[in-house]
Amino acid sequence: MQILLTNDDGITAPGLVAMYRRLAELGETHVVAPATVQSATSHGITLTTPLLTSRVKVDDAFTGTSVEGRPADCVKLAMQIMPKKPDLVISGINSGANVGINVLYSGTIAAAIEAAFLGLPAIAISLHMGNHPPNYPAAANLALSLIRQIHAAGLNPGQVLSVNLPAMPPGVPPKGVKIARQCTRPWPDSYERRTDPRGREYFWVSTVFSLWTIDPDTDVAALSEGFVTITPLEFDLTNHRQMSHWRDVDWKLEP
Amino acid sequence: MQILLTNDDGITAPGLVAMYRRLAELGETHVVAPATVQSATSHGITLTTPLLTSRVKVDDAFTGTSVEGRPADCVKLAMQIMPKKPDLVISGINSGANVGINVLYSGTIAAAIEAAFLGLPAIAISLHMGNHPPNYPAAANLALSLIRQIHAAGLNPGQVLSVNLPAMPPGVPPKGVKIARQCTRPWPDSYERRTDPRGREYFWVSTVFSLWTIDPDTDVAALSEGFVTITPLEFDLTNHRQMSHWRDVDWKLEP
């Protein structure tokens, strides 16, 4: 089995390294990942400038291709440089949950969606950060077990799952697995308004995302309760339910 | 009516300026847009660095707020700096179609989706580039007419439409309006593999996106036939059809 491993935290991120160490048991794992942190870059791609690449050795774990680009660039580029098309694409383990509104912003999830769009089965894996240092090796153990079960249950080409692992402080295992929809409740933004040394105004995001929602059937709620959450995602953004409303309009083209 | 106008081509882009000139007839229009070109930055947001802003006068058209950030940042920030919450958010007119796979990459569409996520009605407007110079004033005339019709038909808070205008060479008006789903067929990437002056390998995207698909009921097909396309979009990326398949798995948590 050929596996592509990528992420949005950069090729040296501890979550990716821990995931690599376990994924190597499952198949021949190639790492093509961003050279630098690409959190919250969503599904951005590089169109007009070159994508610089380097072969880099990370710890004693692997030698991979680092790309000065976005997570989705890495997936596209991997199709050019891997010896054959991967059988599975893993994105992560991300430092931080990708639930609720963050599904839209996440580069980790965008990489998995890009892979699915290209016709591959893909899984994004994210670890919620608690109040204690994250245990990436433990998270990778759990992730590998889940990846095996997902593979056995049949993840088809073009399908993408987003897996979120709870923070798992010592002695507190996850309560179970919940298949949960993405929470779509808006998260209130806050910005600090400041003035730079030259009198120019600037803004700095001060929002702290927390796992809180009043929608009990969502990824946000299940993760906050200590469950592993799994959310199947899609890349058809069409709102099919609204099509007929707009088809009923008697459109006129005269300005 | 208070309107927020943004885009991904930057605050001085001719498509935005032309749209502003017509939108001002519809309501009090505030421009909060990126300082620089942000094409293909998708739904990226700025979390760790400050968002620098400037008040800039563009042509003799308007004075707006330019933001050194992403299109979605502009929408979030506009909520902080507009005198009141907008009644409508317009993103565009983009230089280039946003159909098919480009729906995922587009900053124009991400800005509109962000607005919808924040509970506002939002419309993204994009103009397909033909072989002749684009006529933005004519595109803005048509866009305003469509915006009026959409408003009259009832665009609810949290709803987002993506409108694509055909290239409209002189004497060739659009054939009509089609409500069309997003084409989800993957687009083959191509890269040129090159070597830099120091012997380092790099890649440069050489893909040219064209309006071609074998799926006749999609945005790509309708736009290529010369229709205006309208696609209702959504920001819940959950693939609800796949939920039961994954709920049926007997998940084990032991690694």
What does this structure look like?
- The structure is a homodimer of 255-residue chains.
- The first copy, chain A, has 255 residues and is α/β, with parallel strands linked by helices.
- The first copy, chain A, has a single domain, classed as 3-Layer(aba) Sandwich (Stationary-phase Survival Protein Sure Homolog, Chain: A), CATH 3.40.1210.
- Helix content of chain A is 25%, strand content 25%.
- Chain A contains 7 helices and 11 strands.
- The first copy, chain A, has helices at 14-23, 71-81, 102-105, 107-117, 136-153, 219-224, 243-247; strands spanning 2-6, 28-34, 51-58, 62-67, 88-95, 122-127, 160-165, 177-179, 191-195, 201-205, 228-233.
- In chain A, the strands form 2 sheets. In chain A, strands 3-4-2-1-5-6-7-11-8 form a 9-stranded mixed sheet, sandwiched between helices. A two-stranded antiparallel ribbon of chain A has the order 9-10.
- In chain A, helix 1 links the parallel strand 1 (2-6) and strand 2.
- In chain A, helix 1 (14-23) crosses helix 5 and helix 2 (71-81) runs parallel beside helix 4.
